[in-house]
Amino acid sequence: MNESLLYEIALTLLPGVGDVVGKKFVAYCGSAEAVFKEKRSALEKISGMRDVTIEAIRKNETLQRAQEEIRNIEDNGVRPLFYLDADYPRRLLQCDDSPLMLYYKGNANLNATRVVAIVGTRNITDYGRENCQKLVEDLVDDNVLVVSGLAYGVDSAAHRACVKHGIPTVGVMGSGLQAVYPAVNRKLAQDMQEQGGLLTDFMWGTPPDREHFPRRNRIIAGMADAVIVIESALKGGSLITADLANSYSRDVFAYPGRVMDIYSQGCNYLIRTQQAHLMESVVNLRYVMGWDKPKKAEERQTVLFREFTDEERMVMDCFGSDAIVSLDHIIVHSGLPITKIAPILLNLEFDGVLLALPGKRYQRC
C-alpha cells in the first residue's frame, strides 16, 4: 500500500480541516504523514488546529476509511492526485481553495498548454447550442483542453461536440466517480474517457448532491485559462463559475443575446458590468488570450548568463517548481512592495526570463 497516499487521503477526512487549513498543516509539518505522526504538543501550536482534529489524528478511523478509499481507487482504475503531485493541475495551485486531493479517470493532460472552460445553463436554447457547437468546431486547431461540468444543457453540448471533433475534454463532477449525473450522460462520460476524462474532489461512493455542484465550479474555473459562458439566466451556476474565474484572475467571455431572452440575461449582465469580454466567435478568444500572435519568448532570445539582483531573485523564488504563477502570488510571497515588483517583472520580461500571460500571470521561460 502507498503509505504517502494513505495519509494524504486521511488528511482530507479530518474534521475541521478544509483545503486551505490542510495545506497549512502540511506546510508546517512537512507532509501529510508527518501531520499524523507529529506530537500532540506540536500539533497544539499550529494555528487553526482544533481539539476535535487532534483527537481524530490520534484515532484510527480516518486511516481505516483512507484504506477503504485506496481499495476503491485500485479496483476502479482511479488516479489520485494530491496537490503536491507533479500531475496535479498546476493552474489550480494558483487558487488558495484548490482541493487537497483530486480523483481522476482518463488520459487527457490536465496541464495542457491551453485550457478552456465552457459553461452555461441547463436549459440550452437553439441559439446557445449553435454557438457552443460552432465554438468547439473552431477550436479544433487551437490545441486546447475543454473543461465543463457534465450537466444537462451547455455542459453536455460542449462535451459532445468535443468528442465529435476529437478535442480532449474533462468533466468535473459533483459526486464520486461512480455516479455519473445525470444518468443520461453515462455513455457520453464513457466516450470522454477515451480522449479526455472525469475529475472530482469527492471520494468514491459520494452521491450527487445539490450542495456539491457550486463546490465543483471552483475546479472548473481554477483549471482554465479562460471561462466562456454560452447562455445563462441572471442566477445560476454559470455566474458563480464566472465570479470565481474573475476572483482567480482568469479571463471570462460571454456570448450576448436578445435583451428579452431569459437565458441571455446573465451573459448580457456580465458584459454590461465588464465582468466578461464580449464573445462573438473564437476570434475574440484568440485575440484576448494572445493565441493569434507569436509567443514573446519566441520573438526574442533570452539574455544568456543573466545575473539576478537580490530583489529579482526574490521574485524568481516565488515560482518554485511552478512554471506559471499569478501576480498576487508574487506580491504575497516575495515580500516586496508592488511599486518595486512591477518594474522588476517588466525587466525580466524584456530579457526573456518571464512571459506575461493573460489574467495577471507570469510564466518562467
Write the SSE topology.
Elements: H1 3-13, H2 19-29, H3 32-37, H4 40-43, H5 51-58, H6 61-75, E1 79-82, E2 101-106, E3 114-119, H7 126-138, E4 144-148, H8 154-165, E5 169-172, H9 186-195, E6 197-200, H10 212-223, E7 226-229, H11 237-247, E8 251-254, H12 262-272, E9 277-278, H13 282-289, H14 296-299, H15 310-316, E10 324-326, H16 327-334, H17 338-350, E11 354-357, E12 361-364
Parallel strand pairs: 3-4, 3-7, 4-5, 5-6, 7-8, 8-9
Antiparallel strand pairs: 1-2, 2-6, 10-12, 11-12
Helix pairs in contact: 1-6, 7-8, 8-9, 10-11
Helix content: 40-55%
Helix-and-strand structural type: alpha/beta
CATH architecture tag of the largest domain: 3-Layer(aba) Sandwich
Q: What is the residue-averaged pLDDT?
A: 90
Number of helical segments with 4 or more residues: 17
| Overall geometry | globular
The CATH topology of the largest domain, please?
Answer: Rossmann fold
Q: How large a portion of the residues is in β-strands, by DSSP E?
A: 5-15%
N-to-C SSE string, H for helix and E for strand: HHHHHHEEEHEHEHEHEHEHEHHHEHHEE
pLDDT under 50 segments (min length 5)?
A: 295-300
Tally of individual domains: 3
User: Measured on Cα atoms, how large is the radius of gyration?
Assistant: 22 Å
Describe the sheet with the most strands: 9 strands, mixed
Distance between the termini: 38 Å
**Strands, count:** 12
Q: Reading side by side through the largest sheet, how are the strands ordered?
A: 1-2-6-5-4-3-7-8-9
Query: What CATH first level of the largest domain would be assigned?
Result: Alpha Beta
